[in-house]
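Researcher: Re-running this chain for the archive, since the previous output was lost when a drive failed. Same request as before.
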Amino acid sequence: MPETIAPVLQVNNLNTRFKTRTGDVYAVNTVSFDLKPGELLGVVGESGSGKSVTMMSLLGLLPSPPAVVSGDSVLFDGLDLLHCTTEQLRAVRGARIGFIFQDPMTSLNPVFTVGFQIMEPLREHMGLDKEAARKRAQDLLELVGIPDAGRRLKDFPHQFSGGMRQRVMIAIALACDPKVLIADEPTTALDVTIQAQILELVRELRHKLGMAIIWITHDLGVIAGIADRAMVMYGGQIVEMAPVLELFERPAHPYTRALLKTMPRLRGARAPKLDVIEGQPPIIKAQPAACAFRARCPEAMERCGRENPQRLGIGPGHDVACFWDVNTGKERHG
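Model: Regenerated structure tokens:
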């Protein structure tokens, strides 16, 4: 029997809700997953599906109030992040778990140079002196492809293009050689050429550093190119989890199948018209007691309106939360 590799991160029944004037919004609902050392887990879904809120909840990055985060446990490197003190979380964030935010302009401080912002975690978490931190910061800017890195350490965020600011954010996230890197749509602001360069850089760093990565995106094409496993989210829940090739070849949830149909495809002289998913993602105002996708689902049945499907294993590493069986075209039992 092969030895089972212990996950570097294990999330058990994570919940996040936001208190608002019009009532609570249940943004993340009983989310459970794990991340193995060196693995790249792709997290996909529409805007509002709970991808970013889930990952920010792990590290206590949401303001409380209005956010209320609960769950059984979030285990990382011997710590339960849900029950850590503020100081313990500060020691983890930026040092052992890096986070690349989606919008670098709001994440970088406009009144400090990028050099200062890269050096800050190096001095805080690694205890480097000023000169050693400056040298490491220059190396990191060179690593992420910023030319004339030594001079650009003295520049401010507004002096960089959008793509270059995102590279600075990646450099900051990698500064302390984290065990886990969470990337929240880090290539959204980049053109296709630069996006390809960043994805190649992430592949190289992953193999060089043995770093586990959670990559949040709405782009299934990106997931196909870099991920080992894919986690599909909808309505604050995981609706399907599978090895990435399995997900593309045998999608089992109607939402996953609909997402795949929205991808551009080239067939013959003219590309076919893109499919769309009719309707809008839900705003969930109560603990889910029914399938969140039922109003948009072509396979919805009466049971979907009175029960919330739980994830069920349908193959090696492949599970789905749906009452409909794609293989039989009938209701799934058991």
